Structure prediction request, 379 residues.
Amino acid sequence: MAAPLAVSDEVVFSILSKLPLKSLKRFICIHKSFSLLLEDSYFMTTFRTNFISKLHSYYHHTSLLLLQADANSSAMYLLSGESFQNRLKLHWPPPFQEDSRYVEILNSGIHGTLCLHRNRGYRGDIVLWNPSTEEFKIIPPSPIESLPYMDILLRLHGFSYDHVTDDYKVIREVSFFQYLTDFEGDWDDVPKCPDPYPDPLWEIYSLRSNSWRKLDIEMHSAYRDDSIYMNGVCHWLCRPNQDIDEGHLLSFNFSHESSFTTALPLDLCDIMIINRPVVLNGSIAVISNHCETTTFHITVLGEVGVKESWMKLFTVGPLPCVEYPIGMGKKGDIFFTKKDEEVVWFDLGTMMVQEIGLKGKSPCTRMVIYKENLLRLSK
Prediction:
């Protein structure tokens, strides 16, 4: 019987450096020599290069949308080209044409459709909009918004496509407090708040039924107004107790209407660390930096639900002029705003920073991936 063929270290190195992060994390548990590769700078450089060089299919035929928003007005540009030199200013749908203040994009575009809303926290317009067809849909209010002498704080957390029901959905958290601005009369006659005071709840909107309904679910809200979308699931970062070094990534599945969590590594739970979830070449990642520094770290998740699969892959900086990350492009392009409000593009492959010729105020500027789609939004 012939002896088994020996595999050279060079072949093992080449194979492991090309694996997805999830598979690499599993293989390094097999043999001590594999785990030592994580301490080898040449291997890690090769792995990082391979990680960002394989363009995920999600990015095929896509462009970028740059949203500039502040208290005065908002504008959106469609960017394309190798250096984003091609740009087209888009015209807002009718709900925002007369007043485009505080407009934000929830997550990113899905099948060419964007979810726009006003970042005012309270009641405001929520609009589904396809810039390619100029079709738009104003999402109606929920019955819960008309409770007497109560006001609500709305926090939108996710916009998604449910492939099971062929439906677009939006999820939000609703919190209550007493609203007296419009009360006219004797203060002794102020209507009393309900007892017990209403607890926060979650609502989900369905385009197919064109209505909101309450979700019978308990989960934590995002501690920053950032969330990401991948394959029917929205993800956001939570810190249940601000005084304890703990945190997790919460993932909400729109088809099953269920949530699950992935604990964050301890170095991302420091209250002085600013974390922003992003999608890096098809993987969930977190850009983090200490609030007093301009060195950014990128930690990538290999497998949802597995804390041990997080890996810190990139360190960017220090970048003295950079102020705020506003989004990810293709192949690891990171977009930042500078202190002088210039928007810059950082290439993880070359470690070079370039301006793109547009300005944006932090943190109101946002860059998202967009894929044109001419299908009708109407259901």
